[in-house]
C-alpha cells in the first residue's frame, strides 16, 4: 500500500511544480524537490535504524505519519479544489500498465532472489525470467502502438530529453544503489547493527544538503 500510494508522489510533485509555480520560481521548487529526493535516502535509514534497534522494526512504517499529515494539510490549504474527472480512467493505457507491472515485478524478484536460488539453476527464477522478458517486450510493443501510451518512449529520440533521462538513470544507480549496497556491506562484513548503519548513511546526505541550495542559482544562470 505504501509503495502504491507513494509511487504517485514523484510525478505529482513535478506536475505541481511545472503547472502551478511561475517560471521564475520553478528552479526553487525543483531544488526543494531534489533536496527531499536526495537527502531522504540518507536520513531515512538513520531514523529507521534508531527505531529498529530501540522500538522494533514495525515502527519504521509509522515514520511517514507526521510528515504525511503535514503534507496533506498544506495541500488542502494551498491547492484550489477542482472536480474529479473519473472519465479519464477509461482512457488510461491499462494494457501498458498491466504488462509493465508484471514485467517489472518479475524482474525485481529475479534480481533479488536470483543469487540465493542459484540464478538459472532454479526453475522458479527461469520461469520468472521468461515472464519478465515476455511482459516487458509486450509493454514496449503496446507503448509504440497505442494512441495514448503510459510512457511516450518516442521522446527518448529527442537529444536533450534522452541525455537528461540517461543522466537521471545514472544518478539513480549511484544514489540508490549505494543506499542498498552500503548497508549490506556494513551489516554482513563489518557487523554493524541497524542504528550504526543509519548513522553512517546520515553522513552521505551531508554533501547533498550543502549543495542543493546552489541548484536554483545554477539553473537560472545556465
From TrEMBL:
It is found in: Membrane. Gene3D superfamilies: MFS general substrate transporter like domains, Multidrug resistance protein D. Residues 1-222 form the Major facilitator superfamily (MFS) profile domain. One of its GO terms (cellular component) is membrane. InterPro entries: MFS (IPR011701), MFS_dom (IPR020846), MFS_trans_sf (IPR036259). This is MFS transporter. It is a multi-pass membrane protein. The chain crosses the membrane at residues 6-21, 28-47, 59-79, 91-111, 123-142, 163-185, 197-215. It comes from the Bacteria. The keyword Ribosomal protein does not apply. The keyword Protease does not apply. Keywords: Membrane, Transmembrane, Transmembrane helix, Transport. It comes from Bradyrhizobium uaiense. One of its GO terms (molecular function) is transmembrane transporter activity.
Amino acid at each position: 500500500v505504501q509503495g502504491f500510494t507513494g509511487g504517485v508522489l514523484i510525478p505529482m510533485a513535478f506536475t505541481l511544480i511545472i503547472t502551478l509555480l511561475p517560471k521564475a520560481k520553478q528552479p526553487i521548487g525543483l531544488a526543494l524537490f531534489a533536496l527531499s529526493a536526495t537527502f531522504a535516502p540518507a536520513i531515512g535509514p538513520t531514523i529507521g535504524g534508531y527505531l529498529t534497534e530501540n522500538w522494533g522494526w514495525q515502527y519504521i512504517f509509522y515514520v511517514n505519519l507526521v510528515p504525511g499529515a503535514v503534507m496533506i494539510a498544506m495541500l488542502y490549504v494551498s491547492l484550489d479544489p477542482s472536480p474529479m474527472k473519473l472519465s479519464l480512467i477509461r482512457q488510461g493505457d491499462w494494457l501498458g500498465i498491466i504488462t509493465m507491472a508484471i514485467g517489472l515485478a518479475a524482474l525485481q524478484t529475479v534480481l533479488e532472489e536470483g543469487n540465493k536460488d542459484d540464478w538459472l539453476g532454479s526453475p522458479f527464477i527461469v520461469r520468472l525470467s521468461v515472464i519478465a522478458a515476455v511482459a516487458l517486450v509486450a509493454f514496449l510493443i503496446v507503448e509504440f502502438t497505442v494512441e495514448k501510451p503510459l510512457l511516450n518512449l518516442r521522446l527518448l529520440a529527442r537529444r536533450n530529453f534522452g541525455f537528461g533521462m540517461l543522466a537521471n538513470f545514472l544518478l539513480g544507480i549511484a544514489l540508490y544503489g549505494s543506499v542498498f549496497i552500503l548497508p549490506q556491506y556494513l551489516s554482513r562484513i563489518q557487523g554493524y547493527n541497524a542504528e550504526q548503519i543509519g548513522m553512517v548513511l546520515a553522513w552521505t546526505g551531508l554533501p547533498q544538503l550543502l549543495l542543493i541550495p546552489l541548484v536554483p542559482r545554477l539553473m537560472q544562470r545556465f
